[in-house]
Amino acid sequence: MTNITQDSVTALMSILSDPDFIKLSSRAKQTSLFEFLRLNELNTCAILAWLLDPKEGHDQGEYFLRALVNSLAGADIKVEHAMDIAKFAATSLSGFCCLTEVPISVGESSKRIDLLLIDMESQKAICIERKDGTKASRSQLKSYFDWCKSNYPDWDWLFILSDSYDFEHGQESHDSFIQINDDWLENALDNLIGRKAVPAQVEKIFRELKSFVFGNWNERSDSYYKDFSNIIKRMTKRHKSVLEDISTLYFSYGDRVVEANKNGFYSFGFSDVCGNHIEVLFAKLWFSNLEPLEMLHEYDEFSLIGEYLQDSISTKLEYDAREKYFCLFNGKHNAFDSPHWPYYLVVNRNKVESEGEETVSVRIKIYNSNEEFAKRCEQIGGMYGIKTPDGWNQRSKLLINSIPLRDIENNPDFLDCVKDFLRITDRVR
Fold this sequence. Notes:
It is a single chain. The protein is of the alpha+beta class. It has three domains: 2-29 and 234-297, no CATH class; 41-212, no CATH class; 300-427. It has 16 helices and 13 strands. The strands form three sheets. A five-stranded mixed β-sheet has the order 2-3-4-5-6, sandwiched between helices. A five-stranded antiparallel β-sheet has the order 9-10-11-12-13, with helices on both faces. Pfam families: PDDEXK_4 (PF14281).
């Protein structure tokens, strides 16, 4: 820990006077409440229920439910599922109602079905189990299947395992459950965004759901944050040593020591340091520019991993680091007129179990959002075993289920995955 001195103020001013800092300051704002929320599976299920219910206030009728049912035909399904899906696809879905957290009794135990969609008139129903970073528990899917079939024996059923992480569930999988990720919903939301097809306030909700709940935020699709990543990367590299020094500073309160952060300073009261004009001046400078400075300060290990991969594997690699994930691109192919990069690897932080080690998963993602790159994306998808049927918009495939984030730069599976990505994408012309 280091005392705040006149040199500390001078060092801080070197950052504030950087022309890029003004640009960063104008972008260092949260424009959505979802940026503050930490959604769990219950919250996500409630949002899904709102979208899937044809009678809800999104005013899209059966649009989302239809998108879900139709997407099942493009999943990796068994032959017997095809007829079940066709029965739903061939009929109106406007009569369904959507229930969440439905309590059921299985033997002597009680369980809850995440989402249950029921149409009493057509005697059709859909059972959905939602997973966001967790795996199916012991006999969970089998219990739901048995209950549904025994209580509604003559009904037509669809059973869906909706897993945003695309995990392999091994022995806990069930033959009757069709596993999908959130690609179908991203596609459906994408189709409504930017077309003036829905009222502005509803489109804002759809845009936020796509960016913060069912997909990854992308500065390319939000002009407000144009060039955000490049600005923060430039500033972090330019002021790396100064930022490291500032992170060791503390305010002195007689015999008390408090780190130079917002909570530490204000919890002891401004009057406690009013005798030290250098600390007061530093505090005024720091806290009047708090948001952009904290963004620079929190440039985390994902950014460092991206830089390491560029240095150790190839300068062709480009990356976009966020709090919960980072994306790797082959800079050989640019699509700046598209809201999405045509293909990339995305590394997601997995949910941490209590005192468990932090891990990440890796998946390949391809987008058909730019005519120039459509053929290339289909070729890349084929090399990864991803099906791209007519009219496809986006597809993804899990490549690595779980590896420790710690020392990931030396993990052979991860490094091989990145090298394979470059090798595959380099072959595409």
